[in-house]
Amino acid sequence: MSNTKNRLLQFIDTKGISKREFCRRIDVSHTFLNSDSEIGSDKLESIFSVFPDISADWLLTGRGAMLGLHGGAIPIGEAEFGGEVAGRGANAELGGRGGVVQVGDAESDSLLSEALLSLRATIDTLSRQLEARQQETDRLLQIIEVMGRNHADALDLLKLA
């Protein structure tokens, strides 16, 4: 059994539902979880659609937290990857990269890996920007505090005069 299916079993256990109920909800055969076959992009799309709280990164790679909000579209830089089932593959609309491309299961995995790497880079960039803004906010608060003290000192001096 694949690592991804083992993680799905962990998720099912965490949700407190039966394997049969999970399969019913994502509209697959109850034997799906016991088979040695890989999970196709159509099934992944169904899983993420029915269970938006499962982390795609965790399910596909084992990294990060199991549960996390998932918006249905994975940004790739300024583009978006949105899956629309088309047979065994998926139509991936890459806004900004021009049009719709037909991809198979192996290509879907590659595209998802690219999307995850891009997401990590975006998160790193946003974290650095947030840290810089927090430092600027702290600096401005210090200036305001000093100005407030100086203003109070000036008022005290006026009262003494």
What's the arrangement of secondary structure elements?
Layout: H1 3-15, H2 19-25, H3 41-50, H4 56-61, E1 74-76, E2 79-81, E3 83-86, E4 89-93, E5 100-103, H5 105-160
Antiparallel strand pairs: 1-2, 3-4, 4-5
| CA(first)-CA(last) distance | 86 Å
How does the helix and strand content classify structurally? Answer: mainly alpha
- The overall pLDDT average reads 75
What is the fold-level CATH name, i.e. the topology of the domain at 1-71? 434 Repressor (Amino-terminal Domain)
What does this structure look like?
With 161 residues, this protein is mostly helical. The chain has a domain at 1-71: 434 Repressor (Amino-terminal Domain), CATH 1.10.260. Helices cover 57% and strands 12% of the residues. The protein has helices spanning 3-15, 19-25, 41-50, 56-61, 105-160; strands at residues 74-76, 79-81, 83-86, 89-93, 100-103. The strands form two sheets. It has a three-stranded antiparallel beta sheet. β4 and β5 form a beta hairpin. It is elongated, with a radius of gyration of 25 Å.
